[in-house]
Design a protein that fits this description.
This protein is α/β, with parallel strands linked by helices and 471 residues long. It is built from 12 helices and 24 strands. It has a 5-stranded mixed sheet with strand order 6-4-3-1-8. The structure holds zinc ion (ZN). Zinc ion (ZN) binds next to loops.
Length: 471
C-alpha cells in the first residue's frame, strides 16, 4: 500500500513537472511558401510576364507563451480588409490559436499582386475582377501558408535566448514630402526620382535604423526578424514579379547566414529611396547591397540575452480608423459598376469601397505588440507615416521598440494630423481612406500596448513643418 502511494505521488509529481516544463518551454517554428503569380496573371499594375525573382510568403510561430503567436510577411502590394482577416483566421486555425494573435503584413512591392478579396468580389459582380485579382491563386497562397504553418509547428525548436542588433542604413531612406517655406507639400519625391534637383533636396524626417532580433537554441540561430522603414521600390511596372531591394537583401542575407530571415517594412508610408534612386535598373542592386549591408552590420552587432517563455507576451487592441470625409460609398459603388470607369480607377475604387464596407460592417483592425524581454515589436496597419514609429520609440526610450507596418492594407496611407493640412499625395483623396483623427486612435493604441496610457508623445510632433524653402 505504502509503495503504491509512493508510486502514485511520484506519478503526480512527474505529471506536474511535465506540465510545468511544457508550459515553460518556448519553441519556434518557421514556414515559407512561394507567393509568385502565374505568367499572365495580374500584378498590382500590369500582367505578369515573368518571375524575375520569386515572391515569398513566410512566417514565424512562437509556441509556449500562452496560445501560439504567428507573424507573417508576404512579398505583395497589400493584403486588405476581409482578405487580411481571412488570412489571419486560416493561420490561426492551422496553428491552434486565435486570429488576434496572428499578424499578416506585406512588404508593399509594386511588381507584385494586390490582395483584397472583398474588392475582387465587388468587381466580380460586373465580371471585372480578372485583370486585377487572380482569386484562386490568392486563396491558394493563403491555404498553402496555413498548411505550411500547421506542418512547421510539429517540428518546432526550443528557444533559449534572443539577441538584438541595430545598424544605420546609409543613403536609402528619404522623405517623399518636400515642403515649401509655408510648410505645405510642394513636391512629392517619388520612389524613383529622375530630377537631380529634387534628389538634391534634404533627406527629411526618416528613421535610418534597421533593427534586428534573432532567436537562438543554445548557439544555434533559428530565425532573424528585421524591420526597416521605406517604400521598397527601385523601379516597377516591368511585368517581372520581384520582391525589390528589401526582399532581395533579405534573401541575400538568408543565403549568407543560412538562417531563416523574416523582414518587415516599418512605417515607410512617407519614405522612399527617391533621393538616392534615379530609377536606373542597375540601382536596384545598389539599393539591395546597402540594405543587406545594414542587415549584416545589425547581425554582427547582436547581443544575446536569455529568453524564458515568461519573457514573451502578446497583446493586442482592436481599432476602427475613422473614414476620410471624402469616402463616399455610393460614388465608389457607381465607379465600380460602370465599365466606362478606367481600369486603374475601377480597381482603386473597389479597394476603397472594400474599406468603406468593412467599416460599415463594424470590422476592426487588430494592432499587436510582441514583447520579448526588453524588446517590443508593434504591428500596425496601412501605409503608415514614419512619425508613428519615431513616436513609439519616444514613448518608451527604455525599451527596444521595433515596428512593422503594412499590416491590414485597407486604410491605405495613414498620415499624421498635420500632414492632411500640408497636402501632398499621401493624404489626398485618392491615397488615404482615413481622416486626420486616425492619428489619435493609433496613438492611443500604441500607448496602451507600450503601457504609457498618459503619454504626451504625438506622431504629429515629429512631422517637419518648416520646409527647406524650395528653389
Ligand atoms: Zn505605397
Amino acid at each position: 500500500m505504502k509503495s503504491l502511494l509512493r508510486l502514485l505521488s511520484l506519478a503526480v509529481l512527474c505529471g506536474l513537472f511535465a506540465s510545468f516544463s511544457a508550459a515553460a518551454e518556448l519553441r519556434l517554428a518557421t514556414f515559407a511558401v512561394d507567393a509568385s503569380p502565374k505568367i499572365g496573371a495580374p500584378l498590382a499594375y500590369v500582367p505578369t510576364k515573368e518571375i524575375t525573382w520569386p515572391l515569398s510568403c513566410r512566417g514565424v510561430v512562437l509556441l509556449g507563451a500562452e496560445k501560439p503567436i504567428v507573424l507573417c510577411a508576404v512579398d505583395w502590394l497589400g493584403i486588405g480588409n476581409d482578405a487580411n482577416r481571412l488570412f489571419r483566421q486560416k493561420l490561426a486555425a492551422a496553428t491552434g490559436t486565435t486570429s488576434d494573435r496572428v499578424t499578416v503584413h506585406t512588404l508593399h512591392q509594386h511588381d507584385a499582386p494586390r490582395c483584397d478579396l472583398g474588392a475582387a468580389a465587388l468587381l466580380a459582380k460586373y465580371d471585372a475582377e480578372k485583370p486585377h485579382y487572380d482569386v484562386p491563386f490568392l486563396n491558394d497562397v493563403i491555404d498553402r501558408a496555413a498548411d505550411a504553418a500547421a506542418v512547421a509547428i510539429k517540428q518546432a525548436s526550443p528557444v533559449t535566448s534572443m539577441a538584438i542588433g541595430t545598424a544605420e542604413v546609409h543613403d536609402v531612406a528619404s522623405n517623399r514630402r518636400m515642403l515649401d517655406a509655408a510648410g505645405k507639400v510642394a513636391i512629392t519625391r517619388y520612389t524613383a526620382c529622375a530630377d537631380p534637383k529634387i534628389r538634391a533636396l534634404p533627406t527629411g524626417v526618416i528613421d535610418p535604423v534597421l533593427r534586428l532580433v534573432t532567436f537562438y537554441d543554445g548557439d544555434q540561430p533559428l530565425a532573424v526578424i528585421t524591420t526597416y522603414a521605406t517604400h521598397p521600390q527601385s523601379y516597377y511596372r516591368t511585368g517581372g514579379a520581384n520582391p525589390d531591394f528589401p526582399g532581395m537583401a533579405r534573401d541575400a542575407r538568408q543565403k549568407a547566414t543560412g538562417v531563416f530571415h523574416l523582414h518587415f517594412n516599418g512605417a515607410g508610408g512617407n519614405i522612399g529611396a527617391g533621393k538616392f534612386n534615379d530609377g536606373s535598373h542597375e540601382n536596384r542592386q545598389t539599393l539591395t547591397d546597402k540594405v543587406a549591408d545594414g542587415m549584416r552590420r545589425a547581425w554582427e552587432s547582436q547581443e544575446k540575452t536569455p529568453l524564458p517563455a515568461a519573457g514573451v507576451a502578446w497583446n493586442s487592441v482592436k481599432v476602427q480608423l475613422p473614414a476620410a470625409s471624402h469616402l463616399d460609398g455610393e460614388r465608389l459603388a457607381a465607379e465600380v459598376a460602370s465599365d466606362k470607369t478606367p481600369a486603374a480607377l475601377r480597381v482603386h475604387s473597389a479597394d476603397k469601397l472594400s474599406y468603406y464596407n468593412s467599416l460599415k460592417a463594424g470590422e476592426k483592425i487588430n494592432i499587436g505588440c510582441l514583447s520579448l524581454a526588453d524588446t517590443r515589436i508593434l504591428f500596425l496597419p496601412g501605409e503608415l507615416f514614419v512619425e508613428y514609429q519615431l513616436a513609439a520609440q519616444q514613448m518608451r526610450p527604455d525599451l527596444n521598440v521595433m515596428m512593422a507596418a503594412y499590416g491590414d492594407y485597407g486604410p491605405f496611407y495613414i498620415g499624421t494630423r498635420i500632414a492632411f493640412w500640408q497636402g501632398g499625395y499621401e493624404t489626398s483623396e485618392g491615397a488615404t481612406n482615413v481622416s486626420p483623427d486616425a492619428e489619435q486612435v493609433l496613438t492611443a493604441a500604441m500607448a496602451q500596448l507600450l503601457e504609457v496610457p498618459d503619454t504626451k508623445v504625438r506622431p504629429n510632433d515629429f512631422t517637419d513643418t518648416t520646409g527647406p524653402g524650395l528653389p
